TrEMBL record:
A single Gene Ontology CC term: nucleus
Naturally occurring in which organism (per UniProt): Drosophila mauritiana
Spans annotated as Disordered: 491-537, 603-624
The name this protein goes by in its record: Protein ecdysoneless
Extent of Acidic residues compositional bias: 491-501
Gene: LOC117141762
């Protein structure tokens, strides 16, 4: 922002802004422009009462601009006067119905942006005839907050100008098949659609809950948690100003933090708030953002000015009160000095006016009228009135400074009495320990806001079945160049996990045992756009994923005896290769399996798998002595155990398992003492 006071309208071309529209329902019988404007002003007064009530209940202190609405009747001339509107944007905006428009710059305090959203939800809830829209420099930031719950079709391109607040709830207008995807929906058309069916486009509870969670801090009708109360020692006139107009505090803090060489020169004289003036101790309400900005500014005044500060070692609390009061008084001095510089300056001399006039000429506002003609002068006067109205709309430094100069000339006696009463009944300052955030606290805050949905400990209690279920759900998702989908697509579902091949007629196959397959991996393979059905390699991959596994053989005498039985293995493979199975094996994969089985038959690899717990035999059950040592393999525990071993081998660094956990949405916390080597089903 330019340091020249009044050199910029500070309009929506700044990055730290939130822009909002409110569309009230206008009766059909109101056609006259005078009657329409009167009705709009009445509605604005009612809305302003709601905003004032909610702000006072929470003792809210704005960082830069307040919530303000301008009446717009939607005429073409009015749109040309708006500095933020250019000819390219007019086609996208369309002819808007009568509405209220507002722009709030929030500076360094993002809380103002969400407080605006809260106010809009309350306005639309209190007035069911109003439809609101809000956006910022990032576009539809409400959808950014609810990104994890959005439908698959929602992208920045398809959601432009489609997010509205109706009745306190979020609504998202889905694009129809017949409408053009290249041109965004106009606000006029969107409002018309919502009017026809107010509940049709209401967002899902998951999306609404994301917004409600963000607005939860504002819903309690008590002073906002970000308010910090601090005792300051201020010149009497400065304390009196802040009692009359508490909103001057934010302007003073920002002016002090953004001071330049001209401002520092003014601080060497302190014309309006001299150090020798009587100083009083008073309670001042900051936002945490403003308090942090002021307290972290390194500044010590020149001793010759007369600022006498106590010893910071012997009286640290008193020293802090004096130093913060000195900084705040310096900010008020800067504002008053800046306003004095431009006092009496003509409108034509302002750089901002000259820039605004050039923009109007480039947009054809004067309709090719000759400069100096009657119609030209009429249009010029309208532009001047509109420009002055916009200057008064924002909390510019010059406007705040002019307010300070006026209050210094006309002090209020009531404020002086309040200061005298308060000095004898000062409330203690709030603790500012919240300024000190440790690395662990920061990690915890980031973890809560952006971290995985669930944490596991390598040596803690885990549910193996739940873990493998999350892994299977992750493998079911679709992946493409944009990443991994978080929900399944609307496609016909494949076989479920407990599906089995259709029963074969007797004699149609030599495979005597039931078969099991891996549907989760097969579904992930089929849905993955990288593996196309027409690619030759996809056949090998699918055949491998669909490979059948013989069911448990209760006549087994060793871990690998099923694979050592050459006759059974040959019958199984021949049946698969001969086409008798619904999942025939490729010859190349068949040879790989034969070689693998021969090698595994001579090893004890089966002992490395974790078996399921054996239950005590019942009295009425048969005692199978030949299988008393058999333990069925626990797929869940073995999967989790292998993942834990791989994660621990990464020693906290990046690797395939940590990347997979991140994609799934889970994380691992650090172990306490020693790594847990024996992962049993009860401990997992």
């Amino acid at each position: 922002m330019s340091k020249i006071p009044g050199s910029n309208l500070e309009f929506v071309r700044e990055e730290d802004f939130v822009e909002y529209y409110i569309f009230p329902k206008i009766p059909d019988n109101v056609q006259d422009e005078g009657a329409l404007r009167k009705l709009m002003l009445q509605i604005r007064n009612e809305i302003s009462a709601i905003v004032r009530e909610k702000s006072l209940e929470r003792s809210y202190l704005w960082h830069k601009d307040e919530f303000q609405l301008q009446v717009r009747l939607g005429g073409a001339e009015e749109r040309l006067l708006n500095e933020e509107t250019n000819p390219e944007e007019e086609a996208e905006l369309g002819d808007l119905p009568p509405h209220f428009h507002g722009v709030t710059h929030y500076g360094d305090n993002i809380s103002d942006e969400w407080f605006v959203v809260y106010l809009l939800t309350e306005i639309t809830r209190a007035r069911g005839d109003c439809i609101a829209r809000v956006s910022d420099s990032d576009g539809e930031f409400l959808l950014i907050e609810a990104a994890d719950a959005l439908p698959d079709w929602a992208t920045p391109e398809t959601c432009e100008q489609r997010v509205y607040l109706v009745g306190g709830h979020l609504q998202l207008l889905q694009n129809s098949v017949a409408s053009s995807q290249d041109k965004p929906l106009t606000m006029a058309m969107a409002v018309q659609r919502i009017r026809m069916n107010p509940t049709l486009y209401r967002c899902s509870p998951e999306i609404q809950s994301c917004i409600d969670a963000r607005l939860k801090e504002y819903q309690i009708a008590q002073p906002h948690f970000s308010i910090h109360r601090q005792v300051l020692e201020l010149p009497h006139s400065a304390a009196q100003l802040l009692k009359q107009k508490p909103r001057l505090l934010s302007s003073a803090v920002r002016a002090f933090c953004e001071r330049d060489s001209l401002d520092i020169k003014a601080l060497r004289t302190m014309r309006y708030f001299p150090p020798e003036a009587t100083r009083v101790r008073t309670n001042v309400r900051f936002t945490r953002c403003l308090y942090a900005m002021l307290s972290h500014q390194q500044y010590l005044p020149e001793k010759r000015l007369g600022w006498h500060l106590t010893d910071p070692v012997s009286e640290p609390e008193r020293y802090k009160e004096q130093l913060l009061g000195l900084k705040l008084a310096s900010g008020l001095e800067i504002l008053a000095t800046q306003a004095k510089r431009v006092e009496g300056q003509q409108l034509e001399d302002l750089p901002a006016w000259r820039s605004y006039l050039r923009s109007l000429q480039s947009k054809g506002y004067f309709r090719d009228n000759i400069e100096g003609s009657a119609e030209y002068q009429e249009l010029l006067n309208k532009a001047k009135v509109y420009f002055r109205g916009n200057q008064e709309r924002f909390r510019t430094a010059s406007r705040a400074g002019a307010e300070i100069l006026d209050l210094l000339l006309h002090p209020a006696e009531a404020a002086s009495e309040e200061l005298r009463d308060e000095e004898n009944n000062l409330q203690p300052s709030d603790s500012d320990e919240w300024l000190n955030i440790s690395a662990e606290d920061l990690d915890s805050m980031l973890q809560d806001r952006y971290g995985p949905k669930k944490l596991y400990k390598p040596n803690g209690q885990m549910n193996a079945e739940e873990f493998t279920k999350q892994l299977a759900e992750f493998l079911d998702r679709q992946s493409n160049y944009e990443g991994i989908e978080h929900r399944g697509l609307e496609e016909p579902e494949l076989d479920s996990d407990d599906d089995e091949p259709p029963p074969q007629a007797k004699g149609s196959t030599g495979l005597g045992a039931k078969v099991k397959k891996n549907p989760s991996m097969r579904k992930a393979c089929q849905r993955n756009s990288v593996i196309q059905p027409e690619e030759p390699d996809s056949t090998h991959v699918r055949n491998f994923l669909d490979f059948v596994i013989p069911e448990d053989n209760w006549d087994s005498t060793s871990e690998m005896s099923d694979y050592a039985d050459e006759d059974d293995m040959e019958r199984n493979l021949n049946a698969l290769a001969g086409g008798g199975s619904v999942f025939p094996l490729d010859r190349q994969i068949q040879s790989y399996m034969e070689q693998m089985d021969r090698e595994l038959a001579q090893t004890s690899v089966g002992k490395s798998f974790h078996g399921k717990k054996k239950t005590a035999p019942q009295a009425d059950e048969d005692d199978f002595d030949d299988i008393e040592d058999f333990e069925p393999i626990n797929i869940n525990v073995n999967t989790l155990r292998n993942m834990m071993d791989s994660y621990q081998s990464q020693v906290g660094g990046a690797g395939p398992v940590s990347n997979l956990f991140s994609a799934i949405g889970v994380g691992m916390s650090a172990g306490e003492d020693k790594e847990q080597k024996d992962i049993s089903e009860s401990a997992v």
